[in-house]
Specification:
four-stranded antiparallel sheet, binds magnesium ion, binds adenosine-5'-diphosphate, binds iron/sulfur cluster, seven-stranded mixed sheet, 13 strands
Length: 384
């Protein structure tokens, strides 16, 4: 817990790219300037997602099926994941986060778009080539209570991936490998013959993580890995994941609906709304200089421990329900809940790009945001 909190404190204090911030008026922006050191060199992306789309067909009729539309679960998403970084993806339930995870894992076939793993489009692969890529992209699931087969021992659960990829661990080596993995995730290697019900939620998630590590992947996609756990246990699991990231040079995509959890572990954060990416940037850019109204609303709902900051912060209460992804609003999808919406928002789809007013300015506000009227709003307390 102490380590977790320390990371949180560091995240607030450390602004490594910004040597000086002249914060004139955060609500009118434009003038908001910061002097930034050389941009972070992240190297080559390990994963490049381009215009990724997943539409689930909606049909009627039992015998003769007729297409009557589509659930636009993911509707044109692009982002990069860099070697060794953690990209957080946040958004309300139903916005398409798990669908993105399944597409990256090639568990679902994309309707269109590309996913390049080290330059190779994995959406077009099959057979042996696909199998080789799958080994390198593994997943940790949300609910450790249902994602582990209750009838299998821990040893069989963790070692199961070796059935598909025997080249990683020949039969004679598997027991030792699984015991090493138990040790790596902080569990007693003697537990190899126990069953999932003999473990707590946090321990079960450690088993899920051990299974994710079994094939020595380069990327791990974590779909709400701590959402089902108590807060104190969440901290332990996140600390473990950070430790493993350093140890095995892993790149993470960390999905959550809670912005406060994502901040602790993420280098960059993408905010999703109704199948699209609303805003993406470094953790500092998103948490301290959010320019998209949806991000600002999510941040205003994050609990603030400091009573003084809490007293000054503005709560943005979103009205209305999330529209159906089968029939998203025209123009900007957020417009039915946005307090800033204007005529243009119903006709023109805002592109995810650095807003024109910030382009060429050395300010943390100059990050990608899909809003026609992007401006920084200082959501008081969001940075605490
Ligand atoms: N197999 C499916 N068939 C039809 N619709 C689906 C399917 N899987 C997900 N959806 C729909 O796609 C949308 C996004 O779902 P999901 O990716 O699970 O969102 P999240 O993980 O953000 O909660 C939801 O409206 C969901 O009902
Ligand atoms: S484009 Fe318009 S509706 Fe969409 S977030 Fe921006 S101001 Fe709101
Ligand atoms: Mg989900």
């Amino acid at each position: 817990m102490a380590e977790f909190n320390k990371k949180a404190d560091d995240a607030v204090d450390a602004t490594p790219n910004v040597t000086e911030v002249v914060h004139q008026d955060s609500s009118t922006t434009g003038e908001l300037e910061a002097i930034i050191d050389a941009p972070v060199d992240r190297g080559e992306p390990i994963l490049q997602v381009r215009n990724l789309v997943k539409h689930y067909p909606l049909t009627t009729g039992v015998v003769i099926k007729r297409h009557v539309g589509a659930v636009k679960a993911v509707d044109g998403i692009s982002f990069d994941l860099y070697q060794g970084e953690t990209l957080g993806i946040v958004g309300e339930s139903g916005c398409g986060k798990s669908t993105v995870a399944k597409l990256l894992m090639t568990l679902e076939q994309a309707t269109s778009g590309e996913v390049f793993f080290k330059g190779q489009d994995i959406t077009k692969l099959s057979g042996r080539a696909l199998k080789a890529v799958r080994r390198n992209i593994q997943m940790v699931f949300q609910d450790p209570y249902t994602s582990l087969n209750p009838r299998m021992t821990v040893g069989d659960i963790i070692g199961e991936p070796y059935e598909i990829h025997p080249e990683v661990a020949p039969k004679g080596d598997r027991r030792k490998k699984v015991q090493d993995l138990l040790d790596v995730v902080g569990l007693n290697p003697e537990y190899i013959h126990r069953y999932p019900h003999q473990f707590s939620g946090g321990q079960r998630q450690r088993i899920g993580i051990a299974r994710g590590l079994a094939l020595n992947p380069e990327i791990i996609i974590c779909d709400e890995p701590v959402s089902a756990l108590d807060v104190s246990v969440q901290a332990q699991v996140i600390n473990l994941m950070e430790k493993l990231q350093d140890e095995f040079n892993l790149s993470y995509i960390f999905i959550a609906h809670d912005l406060s959890i994502v901040r602790h572990i993420s280098d960059r954060v993408g905010v999703m709304y109704l199948g699209k990416m609303a805003e993406i940037g470094s953790d500092e850019e998103i948490y301290e200089y959010p320019t998209h109204p949806y991000t600002q609303a999510l941040l205003s709902a994050v609990p603030v421990p400091d009573p003084e900051a809490r007293a000054h912060r503005e709560r943005i209460i979103l009205t209305g329900d999330v529209p159906s992804p089968a029939n998203p609003p025209s123009g900007c999808r957020f417009r039915t809940r946005c307090w800033k919406a204007e005529e243009k928002c119903s006709t023109d789809v805002p592109l995810l790009a650095i807003p024109e007013r910030f382009r060429g300015h050395e300010t943390p506000a100059a990050h990608e945001s899909a809003c026609h009227f992007a401006e920084v709003k200082d959501v008081v307390g969001a940075a605490s």
